[in-house]
Amino acid sequence: MSEDWAAVAKAINQRVDELGLRQKELAERSHVSLAIVREIQHNLVERRRSPRTLESLSTALGWHPLHLDAVLRGRTPPEVGDPVVDLADTLWSRMDRVEERLEDITERLDALKSDVASVMGQLAEVAKHVRGRR
């Protein structure tokens, strides 16, 4: 499942404009550092964030706690009065974690494959050199 951090930045910027907030005020209201608010608001760094960060920003902007998470994942945001479902217990969240883990495993296997190929090449050179001495 892809994440759309640009959509999150756009949603935050629109809401900040509607509410007439400054970054510093949003940071204070949400208890999220100004640097992280800036990164998210301007989509400077796309990286995995704590679900609590998006929840805090959503709440500070007067939205449902899962509003920005829904925007991030391309879903329709819940209404303010809707019940809050713990993200850690949702099927989507679990699937995301499995997908991330598989990507990590794939990257590690690719690196190992490259390392093994390099070692095999070096061993072939050593064996050729040893045969040449005989």
TrEMBL record:
UniProt entry keywords in alphabetical sequence: Coiled coil
InterPro entries: Lambda_DNA-bd_dom_sf
GO molecular function: DNA binding
Coiled coil listed as a keyword: yes
Coiled-coil stretches noted in the UniProt entry, renumbered to this chain: 95-122
Name listed for the protein in its UniProt record: XRE family transcriptional regulator
The organism of origin for this protein: Lentzea aerocolonigenes (Lechevalieria aerocolonigenes)
